[in-house]
Write a structure and sequence with these properties.
9% strand; 14 helices; alpha/beta; 317 residues
Length: 317
């Protein structure tokens, strides 16, 4: 009994917490390995870190905060590969819950740069786009191509509609719809549609058969009957292929996050894509898309069909 009392009265000091070595991937990887892991060059990552540092710097040093450099690299790794948080944490030497918090924080900081990198072109730029699109696909008057994709998450998928430029940059993005609404419904409820209705932009958009034909949004013929309509469809498909190339470069894997956080990740990825395009970073290899074509929008507005017939007869005769 005396021995048990002695053991019970003994106070063992708590084990001292040992912090893991959070090595800097900028120094650990060479240039080729870094690009394979983060889909960008080291110099691009350093510039992104400098842009986000004012938004991510901690006021105090309580709790040994993670350096801004490592926070950004953790997020870039997740956006580049879409891996599990545990694997990302193992690569960067942090825990899985920390990775989740860091990704959400950094993505919100990246979204604050949206106004600087995702903008619809002004009148002068639209004139240049018309020339570039015509050189690319021989379709006159085009200032952009629009499409929509569904991103599976742990709840019903979050669709987003994007409009891209000849330089394969996003000029408009809508990422707020849950479930599986139709392509045309997303576009009809967007600010971009309102701008075209007000005639704020002089030019036309190209979309697939999932959109309603309008005088500023041209869709392909479902059943072409004349030579003009056949040539119209061929040129339309060749020019709109720009959007398919865009989605081959910006691939969103299944997101295991809430819908609101998924929208943040989507917009952050688009901002980074445009930033890298402006910096001249080469594109990753194109991945094949096995998704089926979008079904036609059956409630197509009739007022746009005669306009399309006259356009095809005038330009593809």
């Amino acid at each position: 009994m005396d021995y048990l009392d002695c053991v019970n009265d003994e106070r063992f000091p708590p084990a001292r917490q040992v912090l893991t070595d959070r090595s800097d991937p900028l120094q650990r990887f060479d240039e080729i390995s870094f690009r394979d892991c983060f889909r960008m060059h080291k110099v691009n990552a350093v510039e992104i870190i400098s842009l986000l540092e004012p938004r991510l710097s901690s006021v105090t040093q309580r709790g040994q905060p993670i350096p801004v450099c490592l926070q950004v690299l953790i997020t870039l790794r997740f956006l580049a590969c879409g891996t599990f948080h545990r694997e990302t944490g193992d690569l960067c030497g942090v825990s899985e819950p920390t990775v989740c918090k860091v990704i959400h924080r950094v993505c919100r900081a990246i979204c604050e740069l949206k106004a600087h990198y995702i903008n619809f072109p002004d009148a002068r730029t639209q004139a240049n786009y018309k020339v570039l699109f015509y050189e690319y696909g021989n379709f006159p008057g085009v200032i952009g191509c629009i499409d929509e994709t569904h991103i599976p998450i742990k709840r019903p998928s979050t669709p987003d509609a994007e409009e891209c430029t000849p330089q394969l940059e996003f000029s408009n993005i809508v990422a707020r719809w849950k479930g599986a609404p139709h392509d045309s419904r997303i576009f009809l409820n967007s600010s971009l549609y309102t701008q075209f209705e007000r005639r704020d932009h002089v030019g036309i958009l190209l979309g697939d058969s999932g959109y309603a034909q309008k005088d500023f949004l041209f869709t392909p013929y479902l059943h072409p009957t004349t030579a003009e309509q056949l040539r119209y469809n061929q040129t339309h498909m060749r020019t709109r292929g720009l959007v398919e190339r865009m989605f081959g470069r910006v691939v969103f894997s299944a997101l295991r996050k809430t819908p609101s956080r998924c929208c943040t990740v989507i917009i952050a990825t688009a901002v980074l894509h445009n930033y890298l395009k402006k910096q001249g970073c080469p594109d990753p290899p194109i991945e094949e898309d096995d998704n089926p074509d979008v079904p036609p929008f059956t409630t197509n507005h009739r007022e746009g069909l005669p306009y399309r017939d006259a356009f095809a007869l005038c330009h593809f005769k």
